[in-house]
Amino acid sequence: MLYRSKAPFRLGIAGGGTDVSPYSDLYGGAILNVTVNLYAFATIRPLNNGKIRFIHINENLTEQAKAVSSLPITDDALVLQRGIYNSIVKKYNNNQPLSFELITYMDVPSGSGLGTSSTLAVAILGAFTEWLKLPLGRYDIAHYAYEIERLDLKMAGGKQDQYAATFGGVNFMEFYEDDKVIVNPLRINNTVLQEWSMNTVLFYTNIQRASSKIIEEQAANVEKNDSPSVEAMHNVKKEAYRMKNCLLKDELQELGKALNTSWINKKKMARNISNEMIDKIYDTAISNGALGGKISGAGGGGFLFFYCPGTTRYQVIRALTALNIGHVCPFEFSKNGLTTWTVEE
User: Fold this and answer.
1) What is the separation of C-alpha 281 from the centre of its chain, rounded to a whole number of angstroms?
2) How far apart are CA 108 and CA 205, in angstroms?
3) Which of 30, 133, 204, 233 is the most exposed place for a label (fewest CB within 10 A)?
4) CATH architecture of 190-328
């Protein structure tokens, strides 16, 4: 049998960074995000040869090892796979080794700002849950992925990505101390959702970046109470509430304008969130009709998205394509989160 799963990547619409401790612990975080039809996939094929085989297609990596109760953790492209295996065996298999092949694939590159590592973690946990019939609900899986990434493996980041990938759709999320998370699914009129999707242009900069340094700087700014940075985070959170209300009231024009305000504040949260190339891409989109936009994720590269009212999306696409420094990525919003299933091989 093959045990499969897929989890959607997300666009961080507003509030990004306020889900990161210590800000969320001190002030409470708020984030608006939406998942798209780009996915992380995982397939588990049980083996009976006492071996573990990891295959990560994006990086063209294959690793085989003896099935033991705990694999050594090294800082490379397969650290997530090993960390999840170790935790599953310890928590749910009485420290007894498992023999299997795990194949993973992502529709987007690592470090692209769509929550790639967390979404892949959710997909892998989904495949294990399908195989071992683990008693995990959506909140359980999301928090488990967070624990493995942030606590076990010490990977810098926030909390939104795991919940977005697990729940799917348009969500307004609140974050508090003691890792308390509340996911509020938004009931958006289907016409509004279609219009929002059609008027959004997603652009990939062709830059893969490590978000950890930016996230660590944001956290450090909060710890030392750096007033400009903390005030910018307060404003970013405020815009998350504003954009949530825009969606619920069918005010997409105002959402586009709020994106611009949010981007101005986001750039103040830490250095290297933007750079000369990103500014050029952003200014090009605005000068060709976009009302606003922002980078998805921590910043420094990856994907940007823009709200382009009416038919301006076509002019924006032409102008961005003419820059020859990235490409427009077709997409639609996705209403479904983590999905798992079993098939006969």
Assistant:
1) 22
2) 12
3) 133
4) 2-Layer Sandwich (3.30)
Amino acid code (one letter) for 91: K
Active site residue 178: no
Which amino acid belongs to residue 86? N
Strand partners, 35: 10
pLDDT per 10-residue tile (average), the chain, 345 residues? 98 91 92 98 97 96 95 91 98 97 96 92 98 97 97 90 98 94 95 96 84 73 83 92 96 95 86 86 97 86 94 98 95 96 95
Residue 331 CA from chain centroid, whole number: 15
Q: What helix, strand, coil percent values describe the chain, rounded to 5?
A: 40, 25, 35
- Cα(318)–Cα(207) distance, integer angstroms: 20
Q: Which CATH architecture has domain 2-187?
A: 2-Layer Sandwich (3.30)
Domain ranges, ordered by start, for the chain: 2-187, 190-328
Helix axes 227-248, 212-223, angle to 10 degrees: 110
